[in-house]
Amino acid sequence: MQIIWIFLLPILGLLLDALIVKVFPKAKFKGYDILPLFFIPACQLLTTLKHKPSFLPYGFLFYFILILIVTIKIAVQNKNISMKKTLRQLWDYLIACSVFWYVGLFIVVLL
Q: Which string of b and e fits 67-86 if b means at least 16 CB within 10 Å?
């Protein structure tokens, strides 16, 4: 059952992405903004299935949270840095990294 969720979670994320784009075509957020919420748990399922160390996806998420905290602190101190723009760039980074993390982990662990 767990292997089904490894494939199903990213597919559900992509389907929800398409649905959000169709329902809210002119929104400031994009449908792919929700992808990390589906890809990171799928990474955890991959490592659990193969009995590999499960710190990989959570270490990745923890690293991102630390970057977020440091960036917000710098943005508040320097006041001329747009916090909204900084948060958006960091979230875009998380989106890209979570997709590549899932694909890379899938190749390394399952193949």
A: ebeebeeebeeeeeeeeeee
